[in-house]
Structure formats: structure tokens, C-alpha cells
């Protein structure tokens, strides 16, 4: 199993550009989440999904969209990038009813 | 709703003990503990469930006080490999979203 994979690993955007961060898992986990990590702020939840077709907002959803068309994939879309979205983004997944959440390796995004 | 962790940072010498605390103002179903090494993804350590027992493996253990909505992570006889940032994450219901605290940086000196 590859576990949770994220692409790209690094990305530089200009203000106003849009892009999609990819996340995939091959463990058949129902639950997937997106977090952003900024110095001194910990891990903040952006959006999460409890299954295909079901998504909900986390703590900091503004400026981001998600969709969940399959169990395996949970892409995060930045609609119009802003410097405040410079961060490290982690995708995570877990099986409903189980405790451990698995994190992907992260995407480091810089918005100029 | 973000849980509050304390202390923000700890510096220890190898072999010393450490306690990291996590508290919430809301009633909790569970508390998760994760460790993150620099430049890596967080890794699951353990979970404490409401009504459950104190957990532990190796020299790392944790407790959950349901009345106070507080959890503590205990690192005994710390090793260099324990260095990193520790996060607690909380769930208010089973299979709910996990909200993390700001983390506690632990640095172990030889």
C-alpha cells in the first residue's frame, strides 16, 4: 500500500492564480481531511469528508473548495491564491470506527 | 474549539521526564496524540477514549480526565528519538472531525 499520497510536494503560485492540491489513499478509508500547518498555529482543519459525495467545512475553509467523487481521492482547490495561503498542507485519512489517522507527506505552498 | 496545549516548548536532558497537557472547554469523546519530526508528517501515538483506561507503550503513556476535559502525555526517561512536536487532537463525538492544538515542541539534549 502506498498509504496517503499528495502531489505536488512543492508549489509556488502568484497571487490570484488557482490550483488543485491532489490527495489520494489506497486504504479504502471513508474519512479524509485537509489541514494546513503554519508556524505557531498547529494543524488547522480546512475541510473534511466522511465518504464519497459528502464534505463539510472545518476551522478555516474560506478560499478553499473540495469535492469527493470517489473514496480514494480528495482534491483541495485554491480558487484565487493569496499570500495568506502560504503554508504546508497535509491530507489525512482514516477508517470510520478506527482510531489512527494517517497523514500524507505534505505539500509546501508559497504564494507570492 | 482548538484545544489548549501546555507548555509550548520543553527542553530536557536525555533520561528526564516530561508531561504535556491538553485541555478543552467542550465535552470530548476522545483525545488523540501525535508526534511530528521536523520536515515530516505527524504520526499517531495513541488515543484516549471517554470511559477508557490510561494508555501507553514503551515509555510514553497518557491519561484522560473526563470531568476536566483534560489529557496528559507522559514521557518517561526521555530518549533523543522523542524530540519533535507533539499535538493533541480532540473529537467531540465518535468519528467526528479531529481538531488539533498548537503543539508542544520537545527538544532532548544528550
Structure, explained:
The complex is a heterodimer of chains A (112) and B (110). With 112 residues, chain A is mostly beta strands. Chain A is 0% helix and 52% strand. Chain A has no helices and eleven strands. In chain A, strands 2, 4, 5, 6, 9, 10 and 11 form a seven-stranded mixed β-sheet that branches. Chain A has a four-stranded antiparallel β-sheet with strand order 1-3-8-7, with no helix packed on it. Chain B has no helices and eleven strands. In chain B, a hairpin with a 7-residue loop joins strand 9 and strand 10. The mean pLDDT of chain B is 92. The A-B interface holds A 31, 33, 35, 40-45, 48, 50, 56, 58-59, 90, 96-97, 99-106 and B 1-2, 30, 32, 34, 40-44, 47, 87, 89, 94-95, 97-103.
Could you provide a short overview of the structure?
The complex is a heterodimer of chains A (112) and B (110). By secondary structure, chain A is mainly beta.
Number of extended strands of chain A: 11
Largest β-sheet summary of chain A: 7 strands, mixed
Query: Which whole number gives the mean pLDDT of chain B?
Result: 92
The sequence of SSEs of chain A as H and E is EEEEEEEEEEE
Mean pLDDT of chain A: 95
Portion of residues in beta strands of chain B equals over 45%
Order of helices and strands of chain B: EEEEEEEEEEE
The main sheet of chain B comes to: 6 strands, mixed
Number of helices of chain B: 0
Approximately what portion of the residues of chain A adopt beta-strand conformation? over 45%
* DSSP helical segment count of chain A: 0
| Quaternary structure annotation | heterodimer
Low-confidence stretches of chain A: none
Radius of gyration from the alpha-carbon trace of chain B, in angstroms = 13 Å
**Coarse morphology of chain A:** globular
Helix content of chain A: under 10%
Report the structural category of chain A: mainly beta
Amino acid at each position: 500500500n502506498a498509504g496517503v499520497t499528495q502531489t505536488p510536494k512543492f508549489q509556488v503560485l502568484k497571487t490570484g492564480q488557482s490550483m488543485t492540491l491532489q490527495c489520494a489513499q489506497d486504504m479504502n478509508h471513508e474519512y479524509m481531511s485537509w489541514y494546513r500547518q503554519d508556524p505557531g498555529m498547529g494543524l488547522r482543519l480546512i475541510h473534511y469528508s466522511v465518504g464519497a459525495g459528502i464534505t463539510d467545512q472545518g476551522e478555516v475553509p474560506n478560499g478553499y473548495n473540495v469535492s469527493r467523487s470517489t473514496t480514494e481521492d480528495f482534491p483541495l482547490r485554491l480558487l484565487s491564491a493569496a499570500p495568506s495561503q502560504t503554508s504546508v498542507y497535509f491530507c489525512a485519512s482514516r477508517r470510520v470506527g478506527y482510531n489512527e489517522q494517517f497523514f500524507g507527506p505534505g505539500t509546501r505552498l508559497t504564494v507570492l | 474549539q482548538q484545544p489548549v496545549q501546555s507548555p509550548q516548548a520543553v527542553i530536557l536532558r536525555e533520561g528526564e521526564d516530561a508531561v504535556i497537557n491538553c485541555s478543552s472547554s467542550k465535552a470530548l469523546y476522545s483525545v488523540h496524540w501525535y508526534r511530528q519530526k521536523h520536515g515530516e508528517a505527524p504520526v499517531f501515538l495513541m488515543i484516549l477514549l471517554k470511559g477508557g483506561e490510561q494508555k501507553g507503550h514503551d515509555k510514553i503513556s497518557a491519561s484522560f480526565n473526563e470531568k476536566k476535559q483534560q489529557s496528559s502525555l507522559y514521557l518517561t526517561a526521555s530518549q533523543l528519538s522523542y524530540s519533535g512536536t507533539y499535538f493533541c487532537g480532540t473529537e467531540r463525538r465518535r468519528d467526528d472531525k479531529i481538531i488539533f492544538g498548537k503543539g508542544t515542541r520537545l527538544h532532548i539534549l544528550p
